[in-house]
Design brief:
This protein is of the alpha/beta class. The chain contains 11 helices and 16 strands. The structure holds flavin-adenine dinucleotide (FAD) and uridine-5'-diphosphate.
Length: 366
C-alpha cells in the first residue's frame, strides 16, 4: 500500500490530522471532493480582500494550547468581533451590553439597566424556561427579546422561538459593562493571509487530490492506504441506510462593489422579521482592509435537503439519536476513523475542531 492513512476531506480537522501524522512519520494522502482545499474555512482572494466563502469565520478560544498551535503556522491579526444589529433601521451594539441598554432605553449606568431588565423579567418570569423564548426573556427582558432576538432566531432556524431549545441562546454573553466584544475568550483573531493559507501551511508537502469524491470510488481509495480517516457526513459513509441526518442551510448572495466601504463593520445582523436575510458580511473589515473596492455577502438561512451543502446540524433528540446509531456502526470498523464536524454531527467551532484533531492523533500514533 502506498499510504498509511487516506484522509477524506481537506477541512481543518483532516488537515491538522494530516500534519500531525506526517510529522510522526506516517505517509498520508488527502482527497477532497470540492475543487479547493480548506473545507468550510476556505477563503479566496479578490482585489486583495479575503472572501469567507462559506460564512464569516472568527477564530476565538480560551485554549492557549490551541491558540499557540495555530500561531505556529500563520500570523493572526487582532480582529475583535463586534457585530451591529439593525432592527427596522434602529442600530444596536451586540452582544447585549451597556451600549445596547443605552441605545434601547437610555440607561446610563449598570443599576439603571438592571432595574429595567428586572422589571421586564418580573412581568414575564418563568421558573423553569422550557424553550428559547422563555429563556431569552428571563435573561434580558421583553424589549431585547422582541427587537434583537425573536426575528433573527426565527429566520436563522426557520422555527418559532417557543419551539426552539433554550440552550441556543446561552451562547450569547450579557454584560453590564460598555464592551462590544462578541466573545468572552481571551484569544481572538483572523489569519492575516486568510484561512486557506493556514490550511496550505498545515498540509505543505502532503499529497492532495481535489475534485475527488471518496464515495464514488470507495474500493479503489481503500486499496491505497491501511487506514481511513473520513471527515464527511457520517450518514453518507453508510449510504444513509439508517436514515438522513438533517441540517440547516445557509445561502450567500455575494456582491462586488466599486465603493470602499459599504456598512462600516464586518457583520451587521438584521434582527427584524421582514428583512429576508439574517446578516450582511463585509469581508474586508475582518482584516482592516483599505482597498478601493469592497465585497459583501447577504446571508440567507434556508431549509436543507439532501444534496445541499450541510451547514448547521439540527441537534434535536431525533437527529442525535440517529447519529448515535451511525456512531455505533462506525465503532465496529477498526481501520476507519470518522471525525470532524460532519463525521461527529456537531457544531464544532474551529478551536474545538483543532483540539479534537490533536487529541485524536495521540491515540493514533501512541
Ligand atoms: P469541513 O470544513 O466541513 O471539512 C470537511 C471536508 O470534507 C470538506 O472540504 C468536504 O468537501 C470534504 N468531504 C466531504 N465528503 C467527502 C467525500 N465523500 N470525498 C471527499 N471529500 C469529502 N467556527 C469558529 O470557530 N468561528 C466562526 O466564526 C465560525 N463560523 C462558522 C460559520 C458557519 C456558517 C459554519 C457552518 C461554521 C462556522 N464555524 C466557525 C465552524 C467551522 O466551520 C468548523 O469548525 C470547521 O470548518 C470544521 O472543519 P472540518 O474539517 O470538521 O469540516
Ligand atoms: N442571536 C440573536 N440575535 C442576534 C445574534 C444571535 O438572537 O443578533 C441568537 C440566535 O438565536 C442565534 C444564537 O443567538 O442562533 C447564537 O448566535 P451566534 O452568533 O453565536 O451563532 P452563529 O451564527 O455563530 O452560529
Amino acid at each position: 500500500m502506498m499510504y498509511d492513512y487516506l484522509i477524506v476531506g481537506s477541512g481543518l480537522y483532516g488537515s491538522v490530522l494530516a500534519h500531525e501524522l506526517t510529522k510522526a512519520g506516517k505517509r498520508c494522502l488527502i482527497i477532497e471532493k470540492r475543487n479547493h482545499i480548506g473545507g468550510n474555512i476556505y477563503t479566496r482572494e479578490w482585489e486583495g480582500i479575503h472572501i469567507h466563502q462559506y460564512g464569516a469565520h472568527i477564530f476565538h478560544t480560551d485554549n492557549k494550547l490551541v491558540w499557540d498551535y495555530v500561531n505556529e503556522f500563520v500570523e493572526f491579526n487582532n480582529y475583535v468581533n463586534s457585530p451591529i444589529a439593525n432592527y427596522n433601521g434602529e442600530l444596536y451594539n451586540l452582544p447585549f451590553n451597556m451600549n445596547t441598554f443605552y441605545q434601547m432605553w437610555g440607561a446610563k449606568t449598570p443599576d439603571e439597566a438592571r432595574e429595567i431588565i428586572e422589571k421586564q423579567r418580573k412581568d414575564n418570569f418563568t421558573d423553569e424556561p422550557k424553550n428559547l423564548k422563555e429563556q431569552a426573556i428571563n435573561l434580558v427582558g421583553k424589549d431585547i427579546f422582541e427587537k434583537l432576538i425573536e426575528g433573527y432566531t426565527e429566520k436563522q432556524w426557520g422555527r418559532s422561538c417557543s419551539e426552539l431549545p433554550a440552550f441556543i441562546i446561552k451562547r450569547l454573553p450579557v454584560r453590564f459593562t460598555f464592551n462590544n466584544n462578541y466573545f468572552n475568550h481571551p484569544y481572538q483573531g483572523i489569519p492575516k493571509k486568510g484561512y486557506t493559507y493556514l490550511i496550505e501551511k498545515l498540509i505543505e508537502n502532503i499529497d492532495v487530490k481535489t475534485n475527488t469524491d471518496y464515495l464514488e470510488n470507495r474500493d479503489y481509495w481503500n486499496s491505497q492506504a491501511s487506514k481511513i480517516i473520513y471527515t464527511g457526513p457520517i450518514d453518507a459513509f453508510f449510504d444513509y441506510k439508517l436514515g438522513t441526518l438533517e441540517y440547516r442551510k445557509v445561502r450567500f448572495d455575494t456582491q462586488y462593489l466599486d465603493i470602499p466601504n459599504f456598512q462600516g463593520n464586518a457583520v451587521v445582523n438584521y434582527t427584524d422579521k421582514s428583512t429576508p436575510y439574517t446578516r450582511i458580511i463585509e469581508h474586508k473589515h475582518f482584516n482592516f482592509g483599505q482597498q478601493p473596492k469592497t465585497v459583501i455577502s447577504y446571508e440567507y438561512s434556508e431549509e436543507w435537503s439532501l444534496g445541499d451543502e450541510p451547514y448547521y446540524p439540527i441537534n434535536d433528540t431525533k437527529n442525535n439519536e440517529l447519529y448515535r446509531q451511525y456512531k455505533a456502526l462506525a465503532d465496529t470498523l477498526p481501520d476507519v476513523h470518522i471525525g470532524g464536524r460532519l463525521g461527529e454531527y456537531r457544531y464544532y467551532d474551529m478551536d474545538k475542531t483543532v483540539a479534537a484533531a490533536l487529541s485524536q492523533v495521540e491515540s493514533m500514533i501512541d
